[in-house]
Design brief:
Length: 139
């Protein structure tokens, strides 16, 4: 079974930004020309981090395209990039946004520990997968 992977690029991030944040980003870029490549760096870091988490389990099947993340973690990676960019720009986020980044961190830890299989594996089920433990009845 082929695993689902989604491309995460600078263009994808820019198209996904809320309108007010995109406007603020352009203003920030105009005022900080030295930061012109920063979004590229954040996207590359997110892709590398998410792919490394998947690669930590040798049973996971990696996508050959190096600019992709597992579709099950795409939203987390996207939120991570937008959040980090916003923090660098001095954006004051609502408390709910911090929860989104925490969920992304949890997803990464669960993938690394093998609790979540985010992609097709060389054996067993894909993700999300859960099998209830067997229970012995006491008499």
């Amino acid at each position: 079974m082929a695993a689902a992977w989604t491309e995460l690029t600078v263009d994808v991030v820019k198209k996904s930004m809320p309108t007010d944040l995109a406007t603020l980003y352009q203003t920030w870029l105009d005022a900080n020309l030295a930061k012109a490549n920063r979004l590229n760096e954040l996207v590359a870091e997110a892709v590398a981090t998410f792919r490394q988490a998947v690669a930590a389990n040798p049973l996971n099947v990696m996508d050959a395209a190096t600019n992709t993340v597992p579709t099950t973690g795409f939203r987390h990676a996207l939120n991570w990039v937008i959040f980090n960019l916003g923090m660098e720009m001095g954006v004051q986020f609502a408390p709910q946004v911090y929860t989104l980044t925490t969920r992304g961190d949890i997803w990464l830890r669960m993938v690394q520990s093998g609790t979540i299989k985010p992609v097709g594996t060389t054996e067993g089920d894909g993700s999300p997968s859960y099998q209830a433990p067997s229970r012995e009845r006491e008499t």
